[in-house]
Design brief:
mainly alpha; 3 helices
Length: 56
Amino acid sequence: MKTLLKYLGVIILLIGVGILAIPAFTDLRSNQVLLLGLGVVILGFFAHIFLYKKIG
């Protein structure tokens, strides 16, 4: 469980990258999707830093 928490930020970051890949494979060209993906990537980045310092 501790290992999963340690890499939770990376998992969130990869989810954000998946969200950013949606417009590349579909006709969905919306700024809201891109902003959501950017927000999730930034959240995952900071979560990775914070959790790795606290747990790792």
